Amino acid sequence: xxxxxxxxxxxxxxxxKFSDKWTGKIKxxxxxxxxxxxxxxxxxxxxxKEDNRLHVPVGTRLYKLEAVELSEDSAA
Length: 76
What we know:
globular; mainly beta; three-stranded antiparallel sheet; 2 helices
């Protein structure tokens, strides 16, 4: 998920909160603001637990998402 120039990699439980037509709004656990997004690439990554890296068990399936931030007014 790309917000403010940052890319986030979400696991399946977070991705499943997006609607099929990418019109649903969600509140990811790391963001308090409403977001709307779509899956741009499905990734299978192997990440080791190291400093300054994603702390994800090796072999975990993640999804790269892109999102745009919605203001409270436009979300209504």
